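Hypothesis: this fold can be encoded by more than one sequence.
Test: take the structure tokens below, design a sequence, compare later.
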């Protein structure tokens, strides 16, 4: 009797598991279908190409009309067959050029929307560049709207290359008495480096072209990455941006709950935008001006040191010729926010695996900045190296530089991408929500419980990064300058990894703690 009962229970369990699996598949399949209309948006811009995507209710032959003149259609690209989900690649374009476009059907005779439907191809030579980074932006509502408007408003008022000196420090005071003279500051840089950098690029004078590179750190559509959630969180919320600026995303854990992500983005798996072909859209690289971007998958791809992604990363970084390297992935290697990078249970150990297996590859190649999301707050590290253990293992010997005057704000590195010269790590996952956390990871100099996004300028040998909150205030800023012949006092990764380890100095620990206390108090008072 007992045996029959057990067999019956096993059969019931199997049937229920099969029914759940079938039901789950149906839900995922249904939610991932691309249905309805979607306005045209720009994808995967390069020096000589761009992809225009949009959706229609009915099957139709997609047509893109485009040209440099806002009143004249110079060229037409037509799809090979009727469809609802349209993707048209425009090729043979001029570098660093603005194009107007209209996407529709064969009988559509509408003209260009010159205010919204345009894009710039990537420049052929080095130009002042602005990067806008949003993280965990997938919750539509007031917070993300305010963060978006605040960042765009700040960018309108502050041109590319605005020096660090215009930003207040924790005291709220400017660090430069001539801080308001922004144009003169940029002119000085132009005079010093003008032979190398194109300061007369037309995009620099275009008041609508605020962003050159737009990056998402993942979790673009809460809660499950469905087509409807992507529509609300991305295409509706950022309607004014997707129509003219390509978004370069990384894969987040919420994005992975459906199949929509890979159906709406066009990403350079074959090296179309620079870098080594990855042969997958899960991770990829691209170039813009003098910057090489590496976009990694900390969610679904293998994170082993000898895995496909790691092997590709080594090859890509070894062949890079750009002086600046920025890496992005979703799960942060250092955080004590809404997630804990020390916990093997948190995110199934992904943060630990990225820190232990991927960071050594990035630092070996001299990567300058690593940005992540996932934790819904802002955290920014000191310039560090070889900190691959837990927060309890962090040593003062991993601090490569305290910055000019020891303020952990203005850093200097060698011009060449030499191994283990120091990297800044930032967590910027508060574009649409802010959660709670202790914010006490010892690698971080600044930690904020504030909504916001990052704006990064790269002009010649200087990278300047800012965290701008939902009120348009610069709440953290730092710069990295690359100088020929510079050599730091850093003793090297071998020393850090060996038996001799110095503790984090009391001064460094106190500086980080005071900064966190100031920012947390400010949040509580606001």
């Amino acid at each position: 009797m007992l045996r029959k009962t057990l067999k019956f229970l096993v059969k019931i369990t199997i049937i229920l598991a099969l029914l759940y699996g079938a039901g789950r598949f149906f839900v995922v399949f249904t939610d991932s279908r691309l249905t309805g209309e979607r306005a045209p948006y720009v994808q995967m811009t390069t020096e000589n190409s761009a992809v225009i995507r949009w959706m229609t209710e009915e099957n139709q032959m997609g047509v893109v009309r485009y040209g440099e003149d806002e009143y004249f259609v110079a060229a037409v690209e037509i799809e090979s067959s009727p469809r609802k989900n349209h993707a048209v690649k425009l090729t043979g374009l001029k570098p660093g050029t603005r194009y107007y476009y209209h996407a529709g059907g064969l009988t559509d005779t509408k003209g260009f929307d010159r205010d919204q439907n345009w894009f710039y191809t990537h420049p052929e030579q080095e130009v002042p560049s602005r990067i806008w980074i949003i993280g965990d932006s997938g919750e539509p509502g007031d917070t993300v709207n305010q963060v978006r408007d605040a960042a765009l408003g700040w960018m309108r008022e502050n041109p590319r290359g605005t020096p660090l000196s215009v930003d207040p420090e924790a005291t709220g005071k400017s660090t430069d008495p001539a801080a308001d003279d922004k144009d003169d500051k940029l002119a000085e840089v132009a005079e010093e480096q003008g032979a190398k950098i194109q300061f007369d690029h037309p995009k620099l004078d275009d008041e609508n072209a605020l962003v050159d590179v737009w990056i998402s750190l993942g979790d673009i559509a809460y809660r499950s990455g469905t087509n409807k959630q992507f529509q609300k969180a991305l295409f509706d919320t950022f309607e004014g941006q997707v129509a003219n600026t390509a978004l370069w995303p990384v894969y987040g854990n919420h994005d992975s709950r459906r199949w929509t992500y890979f159906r709406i983005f066009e990403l350079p798996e074959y090296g179309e935008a620079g870098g080594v072909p990855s042969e997958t859209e899960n991770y990829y690289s691209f170039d813009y001006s003098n910057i090489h971007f590496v976009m990694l998958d900390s969610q679904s791809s293998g994170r082993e040191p000898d895995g496909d992604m790691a092997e590709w990363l080594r090859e890509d970084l070894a062949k890079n010729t750009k002086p600046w390297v920025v890496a992005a992935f979703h799960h942060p290697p250092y955080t004590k926010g809404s997630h804990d990078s020390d916990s093997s249970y948190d995110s199934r150990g992904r943060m630990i695996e990225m820190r232990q297996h991927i960071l050594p590859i990035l630092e070996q190649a001299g990567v300058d900045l690593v940005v992540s999301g996932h934790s819904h707050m802002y955290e920014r590290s000191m310039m560090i190296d070889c900190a691959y253990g837990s927060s309890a293992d962090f040593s003062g010997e991993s601090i490569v530089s305290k910055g000019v005057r020891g303020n952990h704000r203005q850093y200097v590195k060698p011009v060449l991408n030499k191994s283990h010269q120091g990297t800044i790590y930032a967590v910027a996952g508060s574009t649409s929500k802010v959660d709670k956390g202790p914010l006490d990871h010892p690698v971080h100099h600044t930690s904020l419980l504030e909504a916001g996004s990052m704006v990064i300028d790269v002009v010649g040998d200087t990278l300047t990064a800012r965290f701008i909150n939902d009120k348009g205030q610069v709440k953290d800023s730092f710069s990295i300058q690359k100088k020929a012949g510079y050599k730091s006092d850093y003793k090297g990764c071998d020393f850090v990894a060996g038996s001799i380890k110095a503790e984090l100095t009391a001064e460094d620990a106190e500086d980080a703690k005071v900064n966190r206390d100031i920012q947390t108090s400010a949040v509580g008072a606001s």
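Residues 22 and 525 are 51 Å apart (CA to CA). The two ends are 68 Å apart (CA to CA).
Hypothesis status: open.
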